[in-house]
Amino acid sequence: MRQTGSLKVWLILALCFMLALTGCSSQGGSASEPSGNSGSSEAGGDTASGDKKFKIGVTHYGLKNEFTVLISDAQKEKAKELGVDIEIFDGNYDVNTQISQFENMIAQGFDAIIFSPVDVDAMSVAVEQAVQAGVPVFGVNTRVNSDKLTSYIGSNDVTAGEFEMNFIAEKIGGKGNIVILEGPIGSSAQVQRREGIHNVLKKYPDIKVLAEKTANWSRAEGLALMENWLQSFEGQIDAVVGQNDEMALGALQALEGKGLTDRDDIPVVGVDAISDALQAVKDGRLNATVFQDAKGQGAQSVEVAVKYLKGEPIEKEYWIPFQLVTAENVDEFME
User: Fold this and answer.
1) Angle CA 37–39–42, to nearest 5
2) Dihedral of the CA atoms 61, 63, 64, 70 (nearest 10)?
């Protein structure tokens, strides 16, 4: 009886040992399989071909003006050409909205983020969060005060401000009163174009700035602001400087609404060379605009991001030059 009992004990112990080994083997396989899948997903997907369909997230400071829509459309087109997924969000000119979009893109596992910031300073925190999460961030069109960007693609906005102010200064003979319509306060384009405008104004002490206020890149706000100025400074305004075309065209509407249609009398200039502005230059309604290559910036931002994700070398900055557009060369820029 004792031997039989001992034999049963040993059989039970042996069976438990075998089950334990089987359990360890099964658990080991289950644990390593998700780990392998997760690594494959992070590294690039299809292990047979070695290719990965990257997912790129984009947030723009706002998509209510033609210029950023042109950038966005070019990004979609380039993404399709390169075979990558892209999702584009409207920051709606709101810092909190854009920060939330960053957080969502990080949480959803986007491979890269491309953005034009609402605010040059406030959005640096979002860039830091993305980089800490292992998501490379690429700037396009407008700057952010961060050294964490993987690359930046855009134009030198100081130059744009200098171009348009030099044009106006020459147009009014180096003296007179001007008004300036600014972009959203704190955006890099507003800050840098203002810097360029004032760089030129330092050379012309006889040019006085009657007013300088934001119209938030908006044609409607530009119209309303200019209507107010025409009342406040009746008969005093000699020229209008718009930091973008949308606002300049709004100001133009206000002037024309008051019967002030002689552009030699009150010249108006903008920036971006959007289609309406180019047509207005051709028609003699707008004196000049400064061409900024929206399509070039949009396409190159996606191209640079994809190169980086593929492990190819890229530059820290890519500069696309501005060009002054007047009646003499406007046909070169019209499609």
Assistant:
1) 110
2) 120
Ordered alpha helix ranges (H), 108-244: 124-132, 157-171, 188-201, 219-232
Pairwise CA distance, residues 214 & 225, whole Å: 9
Amino acid at 100: S
Rounded Cα–Cα distance for residues 298 and 275 (Å): 17
Residue that has been written with the tokens 């290719």 in this structure = 51
Domains along the chain with CATH numbers: 55-154+294-320 (3.40.50.2300), 157-291 (3.40.50.2300)
Q: What is the pLDDT of residues 120-148, one digit of tens each?
A: 999 999 999 999 999 999 999 999 999 99
- 53 token code pair: 């369909």
Element housing 300 (H / E): helix 294-309
- Strand segments, DSSP code E, in 62-206 are 85-90, 112-116, 137-140, 151-154, 176-182
Per the confidence metrics, is the pTM higher than 0.90? no
Give the up-direction half-sphere exposure of residue 150: CA atoms within 13 A in the CB hemisphere.
25
Nearest CA-CA partner of 317 in 194, 130, 156, 145: 156
Provide CB contacts within 8 A for 230, sequence distance 6+: 237, 254, 255, 258, 260
Nearest to 325 by CA among 282, 290, 283: 290
Using DSSP bridges, classify how beta strands 85-90 and 112-116 pair: parallel, antiparallel or unpaired. unpaired
- Chain center to CA of 322: 17
